[in-house]
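Quick one: structure for this chain?
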Amino acid sequence: MSPKLRTRPEPATMVLLATESSDWIVLEPGLESYASEPWNRRNLTGFAVATALGAALLGASYLGVSSEVQLKDQVPLLDLGIAGFLVATAGGVGWLAAGIKAVRVRKAAAVALVRSRFGSVEVAGPAGPGEGFVAAARMTRYHRPGCSLVAGKDVSAATRAEHSAAGRRPCGVCAA
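Got it. Here's what it folds into:
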């Protein structure tokens, strides 16, 4: 007996952007699903191997240096310890870089999903093109008046060109 072929499409998957109990985050049908943690087994294995190798090199260096009396005999073993520290550090940096990259990819996918569903969201502010951006004197970014990052702060309004001339960049939260 041959297997049955599906003639009806699968029902639409529910949109889940964040859950605490789920192992997977599913955006919508046809889009990539993401694990709830930003790291995968390859990242974990690389981190664990680098950390274990670094610790082993540091341990060997310690045991070797502690048994030598002369500095000239200790220097190669100290170099081994430095190499162990660098290997362990490289593993940690690789682990963090993989997590940062995964978070950036997920953030871009979430922003694209929200924009595709709701379009561009504008914050109400003063009328006039190019006006209505605010910043404080020591801020490095300028914001829309409704941005949560400037709520309750003493800010002054200026045009986008004036903020750019002052060396400020647009806020990444309110998309100024």
